[in-house]
Write a structure and sequence with these properties.
Number of strands: 5
Strand order of the largest sheet: 2-1-3-4-5
CATH superfamily: Flavodoxin domain
Protein name: Putative NrdI-like protein
InterPro entries: Flavodoxin/NO_synth, Flavoprotein-like_sf, RNR_NrdI
Oligomer: single chain
Radius of gyration: 15 Å
GO molecular function: FMN binding; oxidoreductase activity, acting on NAD(P)H
Structural class: alpha/beta
CATH topology: Rossmann fold
């Protein structure tokens, strides 16, 4: 079985989480195939977007322009390539949902980008984690993936 994880990481936090999540999944399900697609790499290398062949989960941090995230400062910056990838072809219909990350110190802006994507594309915010995430966050997201992909021990 193939699990696809689409993400963007700018500071390294999301990439760290996806890498540790992948390690955790493979440790518990050795026959699993995990496909990791880093949108930043696609854009940097000038590769065109493509339609996903199977369902996937998106991981994305929150980067917003100033303000408080409620009545101002909720304009997404730096992660818009992920939205373009999801909007490409039929990708939005193949996305199980989004896992958001951020810094709880930013109060209402915490994981706001993930909430905006969920609303825009009509899928759920599956989970959230702060900064690089803790082992409990990894286990929680792994459980969600096992459920969505119907992975059995």
């Amino acid at each position: 079985m193939k699990v696809s994880l689409v993400y963007i990481s700018l500071s390294g936090n999301t990439e760290s989480f996806v890498r540790r999540l992948t390690d955790y999944l493979l440790e518990h399900h050795p026959s699993l195939e995990v496909e990791k697609i880093h949108i930043k790499d696609l854009v940097k290398e000038g590769q065109p977007f493509f339609e996903m062949q199977n369902q996937f989960i998106t991981f994305l941090p929150t980067y917003l322009e100033g303000g408080n995230g409620v009545d101002n400062g909720d304009v997404e910056i730096l992660t818009t390539d992920v939205a373009d990838f999801i909007a490409y072809g039929n990708n939005a219909s193949k996305c199980f949902g989004v896992v958001g990350s951020g810094n709880r110190n930013f109060n209402n802006q915490y994981c706001l980008t993930a909430k905006q994507y969920a609303k825009r594309f009509g899928f759920s915010v599956l989970a959230d984690f702060e900064m690089r995430g803790m082992l409990g966050d990894i286990k929680k997201v792994a459980g969600i993936i096992e459920h969505l992909y119907q992975i059995e021990d």
